[in-house]
Structures are given as structure tokens and as C-alpha cells.
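quick one, 173 residues, struct below
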Amino acid sequence: MEDMQRPTNGRPKLVLLVDSDPSTRSILGSLLATSGLELVQARDSVTGLEIFQRLPDRFRLVIVSLEMPGLSGLVLIRTLRLFHPELPIVCLAGAEPSAAAREAGQCVAKPVRASALHAQLTDALAGGRLMTDLATLPGDAIARARACYASSGSLLEAAREIARAMPGETTEW
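---
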């Protein structure tokens, strides 16, 4: 990960990791420590959104596990994509590709291998984007999420609107 140690040209060095698995957070913490990036961890998507909302300009990229209790990683990714489309995001998925992983785009499989993570981080930091397609959401859901965010200023409330439009998602967090 030596190419990530280059100067950030004024960009922040913080990475937000949102993953419920403590061993994955530990492994990624160790891998990122050698890259010159500083890690902020959240063990669920709600906490991740709250942290991001407090410090949106401080994060260089976000790493999100798709398999999360409560608010799913896919809803989190879609929310960030809608309101911060320039933000690099790397997703993590289980070893068996799920429908959410296929929808999110290319994800790093768990257990995380350093080489796979390095490739995704390099791509994300170079401007590659996670291919989550907001077009699969009904337009009225996107409009409701935007209106909710405009009136409340809350990414969490906007995420609730996105979750309502996704089959199998819960809005009870």
C-alpha cells in the first residue's frame, strides 16, 4: 500500500470503516495503518452515518460492509452516493456473492485479503467509483430522500426513505 503513503494534496487522511465484525475491523485497521491513512470505525450503519454527518469533509473514503444488522450496508452506500457522489466507497461482502453484492458492484470478499483490499483502495482513491446504481430506486424514493434531507438535514432520515423503497429492508433502527 505504499502508493497510498504519497502526500494527499490537502485531502484528509481519515477512512471511515463501517463493519459489524470486530475481527474484520481489526484486520483492516492493521492493513490501513501501514498506508498512512487513519481509521475511524463504526460497528453499524446508523453509527457510521452519524459519524459521517458530523465530519463529512474529513473522510477521504468510506469502507462499508454490506452485511450489517439493522440499516444495511447497501442502504448506507446508496445514501452516501445520493448526497456525496464524489466520495470514494469500497464495499465488503461475504465470500458468497449476495444479491446486494451484485447490485453494489465490485466488492472485496471477506475474509479480506491484503492484495484485494489494496486494489480496491487504489482504484477508489484514483477516482474509481462503486457502481451502485441509484436508478434501481424508484424516482419518488429519491425525491422523498432528498426532500427529507432538505428539511431535516439528517442523512439517517434520508436513509430511512431509501430503505422504504428497497424490498426486504427494515426502517426500524
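The helical segments are 22-33, 45-54, 73-83, 99-104, 114-125, 139-152, 155-164.
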